[in-house]
Write a structure and sequence with these properties.
The protein has 447 residues and is of the alpha/beta class. The protein is built from 14 helices and 24 strands. A 4-stranded mixed sheet has the order 22-23-1-24, with helices on one face. A hairpin with a 2-residue loop joins strand 20 and strand 21. Helix 4 runs parallel beside helix 6. It is globular and about 70 Å long. The structure holds uridine-diphosphate-N-acetylglucosamine.
């Protein structure tokens, strides 16, 4: 098993390019199942989750060409997906269990092939993750839904004789806000439904906007993307498309946190500043300077300079659906304010159990007091290196930030969690001055 060994204390300085978004890429790749023409996606990151999705699409009868060698000019890679055999519609447990986001093939398979069988995604490290809203939405479009031997089975009655999904009004709200992948599923399915669908309380995340953009370029008729009300006028078929994935706002936020916690200065290219205003606003309150060039035309792919203007200040933050503060940056924020001058309050509203990083940060000297879904962080003067355990993707990113700022050596176990969402993170951080290396577990120095 591989671990990261980080020697803390260095400043990060230099320039990095933000990669294409993982969370945008996964539903975009699944949307290719809605056609039999090629869909070309540019700037797809080379990550374990993406490779799992390629494997799943291949099992579902797609030819997938993945060119992960970056283009020398743009730094982008591309993936071309073309369904050639549309007789399969079963996403097996062996694949789904490695990646919960496999569930986003459900809507596209149903709408195009008339049926889909997807192994029920289990819980994960950040708590129970039900799919009831996905199913309720598909049912509202006329799908028959049942649970069979651990699989979710959905079908369109009378598909063989020309039956289609039917446009409908679908309410996707829950007590926490909306569901991102649930919106992706219902939106994708509704593109091929007969008549008009209105999704109310739709997720407003930039990844949904990107999905709607791809679907529209394939011939769908979607309006309202980015707002809680999506209106979809169903069409009979969709064609191929050539689409550039939006940059990863969570990776960008993590790199901003890395610059701030090491008192460094990073220039980030391809940074989606317009999609991360809650993050940049909170970072500014903490004392982080984020400067975007005045002549930037595309604020979803901007260049920005991140540095620190003095001591870190405490903050009050609550995770919320977009455009609120993202749950996927909560752990990184907690690492950062564990070194702030005062008490911060962080409340998790999306996944109330998403605090596996709390005991690990405490092992490094952070002073954290959790009560339910809220953690009070009393800033300390320094963190100290320790062996810690990565538990989920973003929790691990928080530990990397803490490790880079800590005195001494931190070893982070189970870095495969990080590899699901950050491409060769250690190499990129090393390029800008971090002392971080990936080693086999038995080679670590005792920390
Ligand atoms: C996506 C992101 C994930 C991010 C999350 C919230 C991907 C691949 N993953 O996950 O990184 O942390 O959005 O921004 O894009 N819920 C229900 N019923 C449902 C669906 C969801 O109760 O049918 C609840 C969940 O338990 C959670 C909340 O809704 O409390 C939000 O989850 P959701 O937006 O669905 O997360 P994902 O789309 O799975």
């Amino acid at each position: 098993m591989e671990v990261f060994e980080i020697e803390g204390g260095g400043r990060l300085e230099g320039r990095l390019r933000v990669n294409g978004s993982k969370n945008a890429s996964l539903p975009l790749m699944a949307a290719a199942l809605l056609t039999d023409k090629p869909v070309i996606l540019r700037d797809v990151p080379d990550l374990a989750d993406i490779r799992n999705m390629i494997r799943l699409l291949t099992e579902l009868g797609c030819e997938v060409e993945a060119d992960f060698e970056p283009d020398p000019d743009s730094g982008e890679r591309s993936v071309t997906i073309r369904p050639v055999d549309e007789t399969h519609s079963h996403a097996r447990y062996e694949v789904v269990r490695t990646m919960r986001a496999s569930v986003c093939v459900l809507g596209p398979l149903l709408a195009r092939r008339g049926a889909a069988r997807v192994s029920m995604p289990g819980g994960c490290a950040i708590g129970d993750r039900p799919v009831d809203l996905h199913l309720r939405g598909l049912e509202a479009l006329g799908a028959r839904v049942c649970l069979d031997s651990g699989d979710i089975s959905v079908s369109i009655p009378g598909f063989e004789t020309g039956g289609r999904l039917r446009g409908a009004t679908v309410f996707l709200g829950g007590s926490f806000g909306s569901t991102v992948l649930g919106t992706a599923n219902v939106l994708s399915a509704a593109t091929l439904a007969e008549g008009i669908t209105m999704i109310e309380s739709a997720a407003c995340e930039p990844e949904i906007v990107d999905l709607a953009k791809l679907l529209n370029s394939m011939g769908a008729k979607i309006s309202g993307a980015g707002s809680p009300r999506l209106v979809i006028e169903g069409v009979e078929s969709l064609s191929g498309a050539d689409h550039r994935v939006i940059p990863d706002r969570i990776e960008a936020a993590t790199l901003m946190g890395a610059a701030a916690i090491t008192d460094g200065a990073l220039t980030l290219d391809n940074c989606p500043v317009d999609a991360m205003l809650a993050v940049t606003e909170h970072l500014r309150q903490i004392g982080v300077e984020i400067r975007v060039g005045p002549h930037e035309k595309d604020l979803l792919r901007a260049t920005c300079r991140v540095s620190r203007g003095g001591d870190l200040k405490p903050v009050v933050a609550t995770t919320q659906p977009h455009p609120g503060f993202p749950t996927d940056v909560q752990a990184q924020l907690m690492a950062l304010v564990s070194l702030a001058d005062g008490n911060s309050v962080i409340t998790e509203k999306i996944f109330p159990e998403r605090f596996l990083h709390v005991p690990e940060l405490a092992r490094m000297g952070a002073r954290l007091h959790r009560q339910g879904a809220t953690v009070v962080v009393s800033g300390v003067r320094e963190l100290t290196g320790a062996p810690v355990m990565a538990s989920d993707l973003r929790a691990s990113a928080g530990l990397v930030l803490a490790g880079m700022a800590a005195r001494g050596v931190t070893t982070i176990n189970r870095v495969y969690h990080l590899d699901r969402g950050y491409e060769r993170l250690e190499q990129r951080l090393e390029r800008v001055g971090a002392k971080i290396r990936r080693v086999k577990a038995e080679q670590t120095v005792a920390a």
